[in-house]
Write a structure and sequence with these properties.
CATH class: Alpha Beta
Number of strands: 4
Order of helices and strands: HEHEHEE
Largest sheet: 4 strands, mixed
Strand order of the largest sheet: 1-2-4-3
CATH topology: Translation Initiation Factor IF3
Number of domains: 1
Helix content: 40-55%
Distance between the termini: 21 Å
Radius of gyration: 13 Å
CATH superfamily: YhbY-like
Number of helices: 3
């Protein structure tokens, strides 16, 4: 197993114990929320983001995930159900 795969596996294992620190609801993704995601990533490096049921369209959810990753340059560790886990070194 390569070093990168081992690191990702360790990060995913660590992420299992985390709680979601950000919730995205009907207002969607705002500049303020993006700023908070950046701050949380800088402070904690690994965070979980929960999408509330008000974001029903899966396409909209995927667009938001793509925008978050593009804006923060974070690595998407997991995308399961309504929760994603991001990592930024």
């Amino acid at each position: 197993m390569t070093l990168i795969k081992q690191k990702v596996k360790q990060l995913r294992k660590k992420a299992n114990t985390l709680s979601a620190v950000i919730q995205i609801g009907k207002s969607g993704l705002t500049e303020g929320m993006l700023g908070e995601i950046r701050r949380q990533l800088k402070a904690k490096k690994t965070i979980k983001i929960k999408f509330l049921k008000s974001i029903v369209a899966k396409g909209a959810r995927q667009e938001i995930i793509h925008k978050i990753i593009e804006d923060t340059h974070a690595l998407l560790l997991t995308n399961a159900g309504s929760v994603i886990t991001l990592y930024k070194d």
